[in-house]
């Protein structure tokens, strides 16, 4: 939702903070700011403004100091404005905050500071509360203050009276830390500090870190020192830039063959699915009589594919829930339910809260997560990490395909354990899975054909996507991609459902994207395509090579795979379609309006 960064050490803080904020802009990009401790004035000097980090950069050229904190904002409380930008200073205290404080109005009234506040934010109230709690001991002031908070927070705090020192504390919202010979660093996401050290740690919740150029002192709320679990950065951080692509999204689409292969290959032993590297015991798959998948957005769409695969191959019932609705929908969760949470960031609070609910109700929990050490990963009984590497573009692409790849592996595992597939059947399933990277590459190699097809959508306001069977949930993901980066109102429909109402919206020139990959549904899907064509729809078809027919115009041919394995190459081609429409419309593909990469508000 927002991004925070902090540094204290032997170098000038400004450049390090700005570099970190640029990397964190995907988390929130409506305003930014930094505060640096001025060694002569002996106070924190703040520069902040609405707009992008480069706007802030132009305002901060003369800032000196070796200690500072910074923030990129996705507005939750208060409009997008200079005043509501972070950092916030009240009295002796300067704060940057990621999260939502639910009782900030009560605290504001109790402190009686309404007339002293300069912003509409909950975060400035936190600064006032810490300032009021400060009687000389900064850690105690922070502990006393946060004990009064309800809600989520990752806070980096500086005090005018304490030179070159940063304090940090968190509840749910993430903070990762690392150090090197040049100093100590903290950030919302390891992608912002991974270039400084490959060893990092996640600040434990409800602990306070005191950070100086020599490193970290971490204590619990009783003031007792605590140890942290060191983690190893397991991706090539030098690959964390755009590598020459105009947008991260294109780079991440192009990385998919490699990251799908990396995610799959490390979990196949002698042709069989194997989760021993994740320390996931077969027992959770053996004992489950039902599966609930809980996730949001694209991650939920990956869950829909998982449902189709597991139910069709394993005959195990799978329900898929929007995480934001899960705990309010009286879900049936028992001790033989396996709840699978899917999340790229591992910080989506809707999914995290649903996970905690499932655990309270006795379910085994397994999470499919991309970011190591994230809140959902740490809260889960079991974790399977996708090997997508850092995903910076707000529109999720490689995270989705690696999540689906894990669902293929889970399907094969359950099918084998429950005797639905014998050794030959499972090894054949797995060998088809291993063909996916090559099939995706063949789509990427012909992306110019997709770019050409995208031109017909540039002026569209609405678009319909129609498919049957597995093509329908695949199109739900494709539709979200088109919506969220090109701002075209797009809807996915099960083709057979159109004639029950929605076809009333199809008129001459209406853009319709048809996905035709499922052999067993081909004739019915073709009937539905003809129905919209006969009403004047402008149809673009993504069709598997063996099903292509002359009556299908504006086609993109998809590589041949077995029915269940067609959807990843299909979705990749539709990711590209959405990407080309948005980029040719001149939109900010990586940072679409109103969106943030990590949604840590409910
Ligand atoms: C997908 O393109 C969106 N960025 C969004 O739907 C995202 O998938 C959703 O917010 C879930 O995020 P997570 O995977 O980090 O939990």
Write a brief structural summary.
The protein is of the alpha/beta class.
Can you offer a commentary on this structure?
There is one protein chain. A hairpin with a 4-residue loop joins β2 (about 30-40) and β3. The protein is of the alpha/beta class. The strands form 5 sheets. An 8-stranded antiparallel sheet has the order 3-2-4-1-10-9-11-14, with helices on one face. Bound molecules: 2-deoxy-2-amino glucitol-6-phosphate (AGP). 2-deoxy-2-amino glucitol-6-phosphate binds near residues 296, 344 and 351.
Q: What are the salient characteristics of this protein?
A:
24% strand; binds 2-deoxy-2-amino glucitol-6-phosphate; eight-stranded antiparallel β-sheet
Topology overview:
Elements: E1 3-9, H1 13-24, E2 31-38, E3 43-50, H2 53-59, E4 67-73, E5 88-90, E6 93-98, H3 104-111, H4 122-133, H5 138-146, E7 153-159, E8 166-171, E9 176-180, E10 183-187, E11 199-202, E12 207-212, E13 215-220, E14 230-232, H6 248-254, H7 256-265, E15 268-269, E16 272-273, H8 283-287, E17 290-295, H9 297-314, E18 318-322, H10 323-326, E19 337-343, H11 349-360, E20 364-369, H12 375-379, E21 382-385, H13 398-417, H14 423-433, H15 436-445, H16 447-454, E22 462-467, H17 471-486, E23 489-494, E24 511-516, H18 522-533, E25 538-544, E26 555-558, H19 567-584
Parallel strand pairs: 17-18, 17-19, 19-20, 20-21, 22-23, 22-24, 24-25, 25-26
Antiparallel strand pairs: 1-4, 1-10, 2-3, 2-4, 5-6, 6-7, 7-8, 8-12, 9-10, 9-11, 11-14, 12-13, 15-16
Helix pairs in contact: 3-4, 4-5, 7-13, 7-15, 9-13, 9-17, 13-14, 15-19, 16-19, 17-19
């Amino acid at each position: 939702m927002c991004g925070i960064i902090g540094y204290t050490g032997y170098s000038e803080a400004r450049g390090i903070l700005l570099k970190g904020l640029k990397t964190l802009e995907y988390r929130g990009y409506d305003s930014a700011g930094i505060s640096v401790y001025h060694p002569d004035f002996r106070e924190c000097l703040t520069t902040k403004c609405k707009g992008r980090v480069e706007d802030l950069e132009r305002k901060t050229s003369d800032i000196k100091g070796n200690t500072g904190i910074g923030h990129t904002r996705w507005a939750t409380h208060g409009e997008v404005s200079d005043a509501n930008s972070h950092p916030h200073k009240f009295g002796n205290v300067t704060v940057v905050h990621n999260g939502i404080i639910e009782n900030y109005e009560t605290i504001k009234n109790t402190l009686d500071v309404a007339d002293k506040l300069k912003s509409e934010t909950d975060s400035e109230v936190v600064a006032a509360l810490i300032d009021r709690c400060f009687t000389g001991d900064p850690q105690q002031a922070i502990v006393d203050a946060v004990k009064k908070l309800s809600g989520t927070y990752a806070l980096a705090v500086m005090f005018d009276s304490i030179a070159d020192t940063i304090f940090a504390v968190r509840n749910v919202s993430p903070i990762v830390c690392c150090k090197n010979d040049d100093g100590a660093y903290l950030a919302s996401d390891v992608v912002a500090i991974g270039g400084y050290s490959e060893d990092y740690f996640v600040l434990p919740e409800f602990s306070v870190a005191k950070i100086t150029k020599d490193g970290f002192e971490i204590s619990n709320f009783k003031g007792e020192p605590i140890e942290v679990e060191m983690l190893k950065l397991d991706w090539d951080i030098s690959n964390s830039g755009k590598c020459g692509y105009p947008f991260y999204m294109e780079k991440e689409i192009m990385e998919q063959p490699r990251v799908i292969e990396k995610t799959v290959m490390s979990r196949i032993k002698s042709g069989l699915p194997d989760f021993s590297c994740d320390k996931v015991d077969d027992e959770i798959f053996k004992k489950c009589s039902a599966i609930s998948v809980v996730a949001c957005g694209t991650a939920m769409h990956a869950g829909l594919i998982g449902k189709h695969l597991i139910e069709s191959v394993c005959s195990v019932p799978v329900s898929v829930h929007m995480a934001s609705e899960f705990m309010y929908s009286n879900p049936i969760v028992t001790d033989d339910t396996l709840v699978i949470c899917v999340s790229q960031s591992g910080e989506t609070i809707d999914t995290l809260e649903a996970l905690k609910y499932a655990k309270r109700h006795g379910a085994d929990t397994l999470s499919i997560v991309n970011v190591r050490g994230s809140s959902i990963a740490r809260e889960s009984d079991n974790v399977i990490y996708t090997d997508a590497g850092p995903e910076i573009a707000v529109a999720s692409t490689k995270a989705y395909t690696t999540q689906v790849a894990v669902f293929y592996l889970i399907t094969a595992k359950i099918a084998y354990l429950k005797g639905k597939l014998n050794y030959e059947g499972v090894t054949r399933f797995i060998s088809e899975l291993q063909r996916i990277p090559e099939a995706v590459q063949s789509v990427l190699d012909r992306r110019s054909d997709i770019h050409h097809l995208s031109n017909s959508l540039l002026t569209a306001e609405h678009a319909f996507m129609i498919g049957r069977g597995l093509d329908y949930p695949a199109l739900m993901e494709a539709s979200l991609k088109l919506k969220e980066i090109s701002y075209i109102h797009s809807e996915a429909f099960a083709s057979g459902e159109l004639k029950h109402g929605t076809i009333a919206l199809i008129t001459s020139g209406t853009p319709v994207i048809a996905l035709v990959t499922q052999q067993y549904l081909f004739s019915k899907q073709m009937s539905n395509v003809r129905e919209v064509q006969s009403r004047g729809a402008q149809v673009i078809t993504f069709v598997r090579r063996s099903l292509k027919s002359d009556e299908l115009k504006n086609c993109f041919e998809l590589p041949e795979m077995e029915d269940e394995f067609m959807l990843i190459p299909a979705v990749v081609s539709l990711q590209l379609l959405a990407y080309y429409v948005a980029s040719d419309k001149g939109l900010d593909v990586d940072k679409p309006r109103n969106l943030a990469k990590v949604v840590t508000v409910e």
